[in-house]
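User: quick one, sequence for these tokens?
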């Protein structure tokens, strides 16, 4: 079961990140994208008050699974883990965190803009 959960969280979290970045592109997924970006912001900034900035429950649960499987956790950042795993490199954590924040803000801006634009067209 732990092996399944490890794979599940890897796939789920990766798909969520990709959806957060690009879900605003398609009309049908724009509202859902705005909701997932809002959920991500809530976890990072509100839950982050108690658990640390950038907190993500999915990362927490995945790390618990990986620890039980005997893996060591070298980073708190899921994005760094993902980049390092996919490239085989040890990318600078500050760079990954900075790029994560920039890409998140760009995706959030695009999502807000496209959602407002779509609502104005429907309502106008």
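Assistant:
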């Amino acid at each position: 079961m732990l092996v399944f959960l490890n794979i599940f969280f890897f796939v789920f979290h990766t798909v969520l990140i990709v959806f957060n970045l690009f879900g605003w592109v398609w009309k049908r997924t724009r509202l859902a994208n705005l909701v997932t970006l809002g959920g991500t912001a809530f976890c990072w900034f509100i839950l982050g008050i108690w658990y640390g900035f950038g907190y993500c429950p999915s990362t927490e649960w995945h790390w618990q699974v990986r620890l039980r499987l005997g893996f060591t956790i070298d980073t708190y950042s899921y994005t760094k883990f993902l980049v390092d795993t996919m490239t085989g490199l040890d990318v600078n954590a500050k760079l990954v965190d900075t790029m994560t924040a920039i890409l998140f803000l760009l995706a959030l801006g695009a999502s807000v803009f496209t959602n407002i634009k779509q609502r104005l067209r429907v309502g106008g």
